[in-house]
Design brief:
The chain is of the alpha/beta class. It folds into 3 domains: about 10-195 and about 295-415, Rossmann fold (3-Layer(aba) Sandwich), CATH 3.40.50; about 200-290, no CATH class; about 420-530, no CATH class. The chain is built from 17 helices and 21 strands. It has helices spanning about 10, 15-20, 50-60, 90-95, 110-130, 145-155, 255-265, 305-315, 325-335, 350-365, 380-390, 400-405, 420-425, 435-445, 475-480, 490-500, 515-520; strands at about 20-25, 45-50, 65-70, 130-140, 160-165, 185-190, 195-200, 215-220, 270, 280-285, 290, 295-300, 340-345, 370-375, 410-420, 460, 465-470, 485, 505-510, 510, 525-530. The chain has a 10-stranded mixed β-sheet with strand order 1-15-2-14-13-3-4-6-5-12, with helices on both faces. Strands 16-17-19-21 form a 4-stranded mixed β-sheet, with helices on both faces. Strand 16 and strand 17 (about 465-470) form a beta hairpin. Helix 3 (about 50-60) packs parallel to helix 5 (about 110-130), helix 5 (about 110-130) runs parallel beside helix 6 (about 145-155) and helix 9 (about 325-335) crosses helix 10 (about 350-365).
Length: about 525
């Protein structure tokens, strides 16, 4: 498969693996929990922080669980004034980027820097995406060709679903020096499948009281030449009137036998004029598929200015320029997210994705969950504030649901300290039980557990072939005491339980009072904390 090369690729190729794991720290004052509830990492999330580090922090909780990802990264037009500042531990990279001035149209290496920025983020997004999930990325002509090749490489070309086109500009641009008015943007989609467009049941009715139910008229004109399909080329005659409607240039969709059956079953709609074209009755109850194909042209009637009007209505003043319209993202979410799925947007901007999720939940009583990541300082004052307002209701809104409030809740988070062996040794950073347990399962399996339940002897997670135990408290005195060790009595209980389930026991603890040879005979794998936090194979 052809691959894309760019300056810095060899250095950032595995950078996503070296990004430190961090904790997610809820901010109670900025959160908006449900009534009588406390902020929780199981709620909708708005994370303020570098999105590369935030994505890494999400892995122990959401790896392989996100149903739909939508991102709207910088288009790299040369006008955004963004800076590439990932802390890549390479002298060559640091020398290249020592001047961290904004990337603008005068920077001849801006495309390379953009790809260096996107590469590790796409890798982490792939790890978060569920096996049957889909990722949608908005982009324009500046980086579309580069993005397509990167996503082919990261997600696999076989997982390319489509390149959708959105007519983003309502009126032509007469100021473009090239003379071309660029009225569209793209949305690249990768995954396994999308839902498709729901059939419009309003097109089906029963004006003649047909006992077979609602129907609509269907086209019978074929697609093949007479040379290719001679059996589909024949004159069609109404047996009652004798009117000959001839044969279309491309023949019919049905051969003579099937056409005779349709006539006998009274399924042909004969036109009143000879120059008319016969059609076929298509009954709603005979359709096998609830959905049709999803058009590659999306967001009809929804423009960039629609997004601007929406956020102006919410804030009553202009707080951000050119946000994506809610209608566009809602349309995308209908394709990639079930009504109880998880949606991630790691370039959250003004928070349109959260509003789209809450609006869909309001419409169909769904339970979709959103995770937003925004690195800019307006994460609270614009991103989260928008969500607070649409939850409560916007009095001046024209839409009744938005006016009365979409409902919902969220927890506002920042990025905490690194989860590292060095910090644990000094007690400088001792994560809570659940955070550490999730981190250990992820590093051991590559998947995030749905829940963590601490049981007897520290059992907290179970897979098809392993039982996971963690003997731990976020207290340095406990970790240095004998209580934190794997001793003989506890090992015997663990071994008995593992044997009864015919699984291997994996035990995480700071120390043990027996040798690994004996533990191996008992079916136990011991992993010493904090040294084996990086993986257990």
């Amino acid at each position: 498969m052809p691959t894309l090369d760019f300056k810095g690729k060899q250095i950032v190729y595995a950078h996503h693996l070296t990004v430190p794991s961090r904790t997610l720290e809820p901010d109670a004052e900025k959160s908006f929990p449900a009534k009588d509830q406390k902020p929780s990492l199981d709620d909708n999330l708005i994370i303020h922080g570098d999105n590369l580090h935030a994505l890494k922090a999400l892995l122990p909780r959401y790896a392989g669980r996100v149903n739909c990802i939508y991102i709207d990264p910088p288009y790299n037009t040369g006008n955004e004034n963004w800076a590439y500042n990932d802390n890549v531990n390479s002298p060559m990279m640091q020398e290249w980027l020592k001047d961290k001035s904004p990337v603008d149209g005068e920077d001849l290496e801006r495309h390379d820097k953009w790809m260096c920025m996107m590469w590790p983020r796409l890798h982490l997004l792939r790890e978060l995406l569920a096996e049957n999930g889909a990722i949608f990325v908005s982009i324009d002509d500046n980086e579309q060709h580069h993005l397509r090749m990167m996503m082919d490489e990261v997600f696999g070309g076989v997982h390319f679903i489509g390149q959708f086109i959105w007519k983003s500009r309502q009126n032509k641009d007469n100021r473009n020096v090239t003379g071309a008015s660029i009225d569209h943007e793209y949305v690249l989609c990768y995954g396994t499948t999308i839902r498709g467009e729901e059939r419009k049941r309003g097109l089906y009715s029963n004006p003649d009281n047909d006992p077979r139910g609602d129907w609509t008229s269907g086209n019978m004109v074929g697609l093949a030449t007479k040379e290719a399909r001679p059996n589909l080329h024949f004159d069609l005659i109404d047996p009652e009137t004798g009117t000959n409607y001839g044969c279309p240039a491309r023949g019919w969709r049905y051969d003579r036998k099937r056409m005779s059956e349709l006539i006998a079953y009274n399924r042909i709609l004969w036109p009143s004029l000879e120059e008319g074209r016969p059609r076929v009755k298509v009954f709603l109850n005979e359709l096998k598929e609830k959905y049709t194909g999803f058009s590659s042209v999306i967001g009809e009637g929804v423009f960039t200015r629609s997004g601007t009007k929406e956020i102006d209505e919410i804030f009553t003043t202009r707080v951000v320029e050119f946000p994506k319209p809610c209608g566009l993202i809602r349309e995308i979410l209908t394709q990639g997210c079930p009504n109880d799925g998880i949606v991630l947007d790691s370039f959250a901007g003004s928070g349109t994705t959260a509003q789209a999720v809450l609006a869909l939940n309001k419409e169909d009583s769904g339970n979709r969950k959103f995770i937003l990541v925004e690195c800019e300082d307006y994460a609270d004052t614009i991103t989260a504030e928008r969500v607070r307002r649409v939850i409560n209701g916007v009095p001046t809104a024209k839409d009744d649901n938005l006016k009365n409030g979409l409902g919902g809740s969220f927890t506002y988070c920042t990025l905490g300290d690194e989860i590292s062996p060095e910090r644990m040794l000094t007690g400088e950073n001792l994560p809570d039980y659940e955070t550490l347990a999730r981190h250990l399962v992820y590093t051991a399996t590559g998947h995030a557990p749905d829940t963590i339940r601490k049981a007897k002897d520290g059992l907290f997670h179970e897979t098809d072939d392993r039982l996971f135990y963690l003997i731990y408290e976020s207290d340095l005195a406990f970790l240095r005491s004998a209580d934190s060790a794997l001793n003989g009595d506890r090992a015997e209980r663990i071994a008995k339980q593992a044997k009864s389930k015919q699984k291997t026991a994996v035990v995480f603890a700071t120390h043990k009072f027996m040798g690994q040879k004996e533990l191996t005979q008992m079916g136990i794998v011991f992993c010493g904390l904090p040294y084996e936090m990086s993986g257990t194979g």
